[in-house]
Amino acid sequence: VVDETLRFVNISFVSFRQATRDVSVN
């Protein structure tokens, strides 16, 4: 359970970073 939660948080964090980077680029 912990591994799945950690994976979900990691994916969300990466997606958030990519989104913020795209916004800053534009």
From TrEMBL:
According to its UniProt record, the EC number is: 1.14.13.79
- Which EC main class describes this enzyme? oxidoreductase
GO molecular function list: oxidoreductase activity
Q: Which UniProt keywords apply?
A: Oxidoreductase
Q: Please indicate if the UniProt record lists Oxidoreductase as a keyword.
A: yes
The highest taxon in the source lineage is Eukaryota
Protein name as catalogued: Ent-kaurenoic acid oxidase
The coding gene here is KAO-B1
